[in-house]
Structures
1.
Amino acid sequence: MILALVGYLAVRFIRSATSEGCTAHGTDGTAVTLDLDQASHASTVAAVAHARGLPEQAVTIALATALQESKLRNLASGDRDSLGLFQQRPSQGWGTPAQIRDPVYASGKFFEALVKVPDYADLPVTVAAQHVQHSGYPGAYAQHEAEAATLANVLTGQDGPALSCTVKGVGKSDTQATPAGGGGGTGGVQADRAGGTAGVVQGSGGAAHGVAAAVRREFGKVPAAVTGAGDSVSYRVAETTTGWSLALWLVCHAGALHATSVTFDDHRWSSDASDHGWTSVPAASGASSTVTVRVN
């Protein structure tokens, strides 16, 4: 009895000591570790690129830029009037301060400028980024290229369950997701308000509807929700890469979305065992092409 109690306490201590964060594993053996705030922003950048039908290289360029400009933080200040992930400036026509502090908006504006650069996907990352940013340190983006390329490859779903996040306390709070401009948090997944931002609304079925709204806002119209009742939302996807991109986005935003599990392609991530990463689950009919997220 005593040994059993000691063993139980040891496991609880180890799990409680496990720090929160996300790690992406590249095919070349490299690993990129981010905290939950950074991971949520990185996955938002990839989601916005997906909604616009942009290639993986566009995500690499955007992530290298955000790593240099803000370390993937939704900054409330910077050089002169620079703000947000990309340190965009209201005085330079990037938008209002509130808009720029919205990671979905900021990512969209970055991509709008990037696609106007001729043959941007064939340019060196630092050259493409500089065409958008007009930085005083044009070579600085190159130092983040390898890290950004690994994240882009993983977050666009190319390598399946190559990213996992360790989280604590998901589903144990009824608080809403952090609003844009508040504390440098998720930003892209936030309370509904004038301006059309998607919300995670609590109440009967509220969190599930909030997930669906957030996915629509960041991923666009595809994939479409096929169920949304009760405590889950499911998406049928045509491509495995799209499924994994969505599944990883859900995991990176698990805290704000109150996501307790994400299942896709015979794999499951669970918030109550998040330190174990993705685990194999028995194949179910149609499950290999369906992403399902359960919320609390």
2.
Amino acid sequence: MLTSPGLPMRQIPLDLGPVSMPGLDEFILEDGGQQALEWLRAWPSSTSQARVPAAYFWGPSGSGKTHLLRAMVPRALAAGHHVMWVSAQGCQMWDADSPEAPTLALIDDCERLDGHLQHLAFNLFIESASTGAEGAGPLSIIAAGSVPPVDLPVRDDLRTRLGWGLIFALSPLSESGVRQALRDEASRRGIDLDDGVVSYLLVRYSRDLAFLAGLLDRLDRFALAEHRTVTVPLLKQMLVLETE
């Protein structure tokens, strides 16, 4: 497994534990996502059969890139892999039972990686090209960003390697897709979310699922603290209190 002297692992300040992660089955499939989803469902056999060490998913905010990458954490652990997560917030790792097990590195928000994390990401590509070195298992990489690899604002050698493997373009969800995603996320959290709350959110905010999921999380905690159900009036109350 790769180690990078001088680049200590920084814990992500988010709950990325496998239990809390939505899976591939929860991904809402719309235009352009079928091929990407089929490849991920076939992983790791899709990687070994095609001899592709890396894949890159790109699309605007709300296209589901982070969802797909997070869904691969429990999938890889179940397959007996080490897992490394790299994003602008830092790094997190989950170890497999065997030190010699393969590793899956997931790199999210590539366009936001700072210099240290770009160096780490580049080293992962170097490691993936030297399978079996020093007793380590093979390493594969799945990365994501908001733009195609050629347009990423990262160091040239990393940009080139991100474009070497398979590339999948994702589209943002339609309004109906966002509605379904919010209802699914609410159901996963045990929230009874009616259409009125969803409509209120979509009228006043963008279709950025990461933002809306964060708002839903705050609303859930606020409802629990107030011992009330999630309604539009409760949402309005929370938003007013947050601005005070």
3.
Amino acid sequence: MKILSATLAGKRMVAVGDHGVILLSDDNGVTFRQAKSVPVSSTLTSVTFSDPQRGWAVGHWGAIIRTTDGGENWTLQRSDTKADQPLFSVYFRNSTEGWAVGLWSLMLHTTDGGATWSKLTLSPPGAKKLDRNLYSIFGDRHDNLFIACEQGSIARSTDGGQTWNFVDTGYTGSFWTGLALQDGTLLVAGLRGTVYRSTDGGDTWVRSRTMVRSSVTDMVQMPDMSVIAVGLDGAFSFSKDDGVSFAGKQRTDRTALTAVVDGHDGRIVLFSANGPASP
């Protein structure tokens, strides 16, 4: 059971993955159970909550589903079975406004909690077609928005999502995940263990020093301000200097780690291509 994304909904942990599976844990990741009602059987790639009760998950066939009871029951808000244009990431800045991004520059925006979604067009300068995959959308404490993309680029909005521009990091590979740290530092990571860092709101990016060369799938900042990065081939890295450098290792089982969550007691909860994983 491959898990692709996980997050916290108050004290509850919510994870999503293949075949529309949604797992819930109320004991900080020690045990999991399945959600009561999920309206899709296609792969879910990303999940987010605006508060302990209201959350959204997205996935293949452009599916967007919503919960208002902490993940127990979900309803379908959107899908497009005519074209399998998957959504890779979803982010809500509050309970009403959110964005979902995915394949071939697909971006959707809602201002009514997902009751309706409008399609936006993001095209990098010089692009001949909308072929840039948008992998991970995230926001910072100033309501700026960022999207980790293909070809070493970052899409950025500094006006609440009204306009977007693409920032070239100097890297040519794909970024799969991104994170805004509490001090405002921005991190994006992806292929071959690559991590880039910005301390000026995304204007300029510098490559971090990393030890592990397996692709990074997810990152989280812990209560002690350290940053944990996980990835393929059992890659596990950590930074104690706000992402300037990462020390790391590979798990002996080499299981593909796909998501990491900061548990309420400061423990690290891991997810993998085989479901929840032991630290």
